[in-house]
Design brief:
The chain has about 400 residues and is of the alpha+beta class. About 60% of the residues lie in helices and about 10% in strands. Strands 1-2-3-5-4 form a 5-stranded mixed β-sheet, with helices on one face. β1, α10 and β2 form a beta-alpha-beta unit. The chain is rod-shaped.
Length: about 400
């Protein structure tokens, strides 16, 4: 609708779109059905008003039949989207008994806007049929006028507008599809950038940290196997070697996560938490920490996710004790009761000079969040003797034989 330029053209186009129920995009089914009902009601009202007017002048030979034909043609507008030929044919045949052209306007628009194949052939047949039969079924006093203007105003113009709306709808649909494809391309590019960055970070970690941990493991193993070394030195070297191997295992898990963010190669093997905690306690004793460790007998293995979380909690507790309570005695207990698993790490008051190390402040909050995800909880606080306590509880999800 660009025939009328400027603001007036925009207002006219907006009004016609409102009248015909067309927006800039495809309406939802409920709104479309409601629009069709309003249009059918409007067409029926206009038909009734027009027929009543011409009936008073005696220009309708059979008023009840003309009114029934016009109302029936208006009702068929309910199917204008799915069966556009129905209102077009109904409006055309209604002109055999009535000269009301209201249904023709809506029928021609529906056929042009929603018809599929041969819609313009159908519109041409509508015009020819109306022009050829118009004078045959009307009173003599109403005949003799040129039907060309009626065909143009009642059929051709509405059909042209319907074609305009149809093409506009196709353009909008194509633009929406292009926008969707553009968004998909941007998302794909962003995902690719994330994968590339993950791969680069994994490679740098492997080349740097992996190499250093491997060298440390080999050096500690060589020192442990040195027969001439002091037994305490060999014991310390064994602890360093075990720690380095554990760290290398964790590095590999992190690299797997970076290379496989979707988790397709996630580690799902059960974890013997008791054995790992014993190894961790032994390593910490080798550094001079006074630590006692007790694991409830018969605990068995834990699911992979729960096992890694328990090991993470134990490391956090022992690391904090080493940093903030040097010289203290540490007690670490793991047990299960009443459908829950509990891990306690408790240290006494510090007796030595505190080791000054920067803290990222992410350890305890990160553990709270991780435990909350699995339905667990974390409690921390000072003890009566001036020490510190870290107690974690999570649901017992072990698979017991």
């Amino acid at each position: 609708m660009q025939a009328v330029p400027g603001r007036a053209g925009q207002l006219l186009e907006r009004g016609l779109r409102t009248l015909t129920g067309e927006g800039s995009g495809a309406p939802d089914p409920v709104r479309a059905r409601r629009t069709d009902m309003w249009l059918a009601a409007l067409c029926a009202l206009l038909t009734a008003i027009n027929l009543e007017d011409v009936h008073r002048f005696g220009l309708v030979t059979n008023y009840p039949l003309s009114l029934a034909a016009g109302l029936l043609a208006a009702v068929t507008l309910l199917w204008r989207r799915s069966h556009a030929w129905v209102p077009a044919l109904a409006a055309t045949f209604a002109t055999l008994v009535s000269d009301d052209r209201g249904p023709l306007v809506f029928g021609a628009y529906a056929l042009a806007a929603y018809g599929r194949t041969h819609r313009w052939g159908g519109i041409l047949l509508m015009g020819l049929f109306y022009a050829g039969t118009r004078d045959l079924f009307l009173p003599l006093g109403y005949a003799g006028r040129d039907p060309a203007s009626f065909v143009l105003g009642s059929i051709v113009v509405p059909a042209l507008y319907g074609e305009t709306v149809r093409r506009n709808r196709a353009v909008m649909s194509a633009l929406r599809e292009r926008a969707r494809q553009a968004h998909a391309a941007v998302d794909q590019a962003a995902d690719l950038a994330v994968v590339q960055e993950r791969t680069r970070l994994a490679q740098r970690t492997h080349d740097g940290l992996g190499h250093r941990l491997t060298a440390l493991t080999m050096q500690a193993a060589a020192l442990r196997l040195d027969a001439g070394a002091d037994p305490r030195v060999r014991e310390g070297a064994a602890a360093v070697e075990e720690s380095a191997r554990a760290a290398m295992t964790e590095v590999r898990e992190v690299l797997d996560m970076l290379n496989d963010p979707a988790g397709r190669r996630a580690h799902t093997s059960p974890v013997d938490v008791g054995r790992f905690l014993g190894s961790l306690a032994r390593n910490m004793r080798a550094t001079g920490m006074e630590i006692t460790h007790r694991t409830q007998p018969g605990l068995g293995e834990f699911p992979a996710a729960d096992g890694r979380l328990l090991l993470r909690i134990a490391r956090e507790g022992l690391t904090n004790a080493a940093k903030y309570a040097p010289g203290s005695a540490v007690r670490m207990n793991l047990f299960a009761e009443d459908g829950e698993v509990r891990l306690d790490v408790v240290n006494t008051a510090p007796e030595g000079e505190r080791i000054v190390l920067d803290s990222g402040g992410m350890g305890i909050p990160g553990l709270r969040a991780a435990l909350a995800e699995v339905g667990g909880r974390l409690r921390t606080g000072d003890t009566q003797d001036g020490g510190h306590m870290l107690a974690a509880t999570l649901p017992d999800r072990r698979v017991l034989a």
